[in-house]
Write a structure and sequence with these properties.
alpha/beta, two-stranded antiparallel sheet, 11 helices, single chain, about 350 residues, Nucleotidyltransferase, domain 5, about 50% helix, six-stranded mixed sheet
Length: about 350
């Protein structure tokens, strides 16, 4: 079974992530935004590294928290999540360097290496509440669709490389909406060269791209660049395959957005329910009512309410002779550590 390790150094608005294999080799690094968009990119990164064995692989994630919507989504997606104490990360970092230098990327690497070598020493986070189970279904389907889209994009890239490499230069992101729209409109070099400036600019505008004029010129220049030509029959066959793959990727992308909306809505409901629960059930540490048997001012000290003392009903044990070594001990009634001897026949005192 393939094993993939991930370290996640989180902040309020982003996550620094590093992926590592079993040998400790760094596979990928990225800074991801907080929320569903960042989670989608993380699934895509993991899917690219796992390939066809994604469903049978084990993914371990180390992160410096064990709560929050991001952790819930990671655990619900089927990853093994380890909530690592920040002090553990700092101590582990000192094992490999004493300079004290700290960075988000270095912490992500440290946590990935921790779950690689010391997973048996860490505690895994579980998502087992009813709300988390609902997120689990959506998050796993969301992850599976992103992995499937990644596979289809890779197949599309290999197909274009065989007969239409100019498209790879014109469309760096093959799963982007504008790239899919333009590929579906022109799937072979001849039809792509006939794309007008208005058609390319309209696709970029619908995809909400910036610098539409500059990107339009770059795409048209790449599509009109000279290249080796395949026989017409081969080109037509490859164009048919590209057309099918483009339609599949477009459909998967639409459903990914649908599941992202469902995932975001369920996570929002979890957040609202958590705030409501905390407001209606305050933490015991801040409960103003005193515990039974305690005074109002005894919340932080034990000396506020003195404990009752019991009267002694038996005399204290007699002190041992001056030379304890010469006295004959009566086991088990002799205490050799304090110098007091209690005869074995003496009645015990009440507590």
């Amino acid at each position: 079974m393939q094993l993939l390790l991930a370290g996640d150094d989180w902040a309020e608005d982003h996550h620094d992530v590093e992926l590592m294999d079993e040998s400790g080799r760094t596979l990928a690094r990225a800074r991801l935004p907080e929320g569903a968009a960042g989670m989608a990119r993380l699934h895509a990164m993991i899917g690219e590294q796992l390939g066809e064995d994604a469903e049978t692989a084990e993914v371990r994630v180390g992160i410096e928290t064990d709560r929050g919507l991001w952790v819930t989504a990671l655990a619900a997606a089927g990853y093994t999540v380890f909530g690592v104490n920040p002090l553990q990360v700092a101590r582990y970092r000192e094992r490999h360097g004493v300079s004290g230098a700290k960075s988000d990327a270095a912490d992500a690497h440290t946590m990935a290496d921790m779950v690689r070598t010391d997973a048996h020493q860490l505690r895994a986070v579980a998502a087992d509440s009813p709300a988390a189970q609902a997120v689990k279904v959506v998050a796993r389907a969301h992850k599976t669709l992103i992995w499937e889209r990644t596979r289809q994009v890779q197949r599309l890239r290999y197909q274009l490389r065989d007969y239409f490499p100019a498209a790879l230069e014109a469309y760096p992101d093959l799963d982007a909406p504008d790239a899919l729209e333009l590929l579906a409109r022109a799937t072979d070099p001849a039809s792509a060269a006939r794309l007008t400036t208005a058609q390319v600019a309209a696709a970029l505008k619908r995809a909400r791209r910036r610098d539409i004029a500059g990107k339009t010129a770059a795409i048209r220049a790449a599509l009109r660049s000279p290249q080796l030509a395949q026989p017409p029959q081969v080109t037509a066959a490859c164009a048919a395959v590209v057309r099918s793959l483009t339609a599949v990727i477009t459909a998967i992308s639409e459903q990914v957005k649908v599941l992202e909306g469902s995932w975001r809505g369920r996570c929002r409901r979890i957040s609202v329910s958590t705030r409501t629960l905390r407001s209606s059930h305050p933490s015991p540490a801040w409960d103003p009512s005193p515990a039974p048997g305690c005074s109002q001012n005894s919340a932080t000290t034990r000396a506020a309410t003195p404990a009752p003392r019991l009267a002694r009903t038996t005399p204290p044990p007699a002190r041992s002779p001056a030379n304890p070594a010469s006295a004959k001990p009566s086991w088990p009634g002799t205490c050799t550590t304090t110098g007091f001897a209690t005869p074995s026949t003496a009645r015990p005192s009440p507590p």
